């Protein structure tokens, strides 16, 4: 993770250890994925064997790890870092 935003210079680490809370965000997102995959397997695959649940959930979570890592930090910034997206700034800088 970069130390500062290359566009506006915002310092991402608001305080020391700020992103420890992102672990809980990531955990919550992982639980949602596990539930979605489990329910989907139950209804779409007709309640397969336990090892199928475990394998599919593990592969899905491992595949989503980079996304979970980033979105957990973004959620932490939005919920507890007093940070919000400013579309007017983005349009000034031609950020899509
Ligand atoms: Zn920025």
Would you write up a description of this structure?
With 96 residues, the chain is mainly alpha-helical. The protein has a domain at 18-81. Helices cover 62% and strands 0% of the residues. The protein has three helices and no strands. It has helices spanning 22-44, 50-80, 87-92. Helix 1 (22-44) packs antiparallel against helix 2 (50-80). The radius of gyration is 18 Å and the shape is elongated. The two termini are 21 Å apart. Bound molecules: zinc ion. Residues 5, 7-8, 10 line the site of zinc ion.
- Measured between the Cα atoms of the first and last residue, the distance is 21 Å
Order of helical and strand elements? HHH
From the helix content, strand content and strand pairing, which structural class follows?
mainly alpha
Quaternary class: single chain
Helix content, binned percent: 55-70%
Low-confidence stretches: none
Major sheet size, sense and barrel closure: none
Radius of gyration: 18 Å
What is the arithmetic mean of pLDDT? 89
Beta-strand content estimate: under 5%
* Secondary structure tally, helices: 3
Bound molecules: zinc ion
Give the overall shape: elongated
The overall strand count is 0
Structural topology:
Blueprint: H1 22-44, H2 50-80, H3 87-92
Helix pairs in contact: 1-2
Bound molecules: zinc ion.
Quick structural overview:
By secondary structure, the chain is mostly helical. It has helices at residues 22-44, 50-80, 87-92.
Key terms for this structure?
0% strand, DUF983 domain-containing protein, 96 residues, elongated, mainly alpha, 62% helix, binds zinc ion
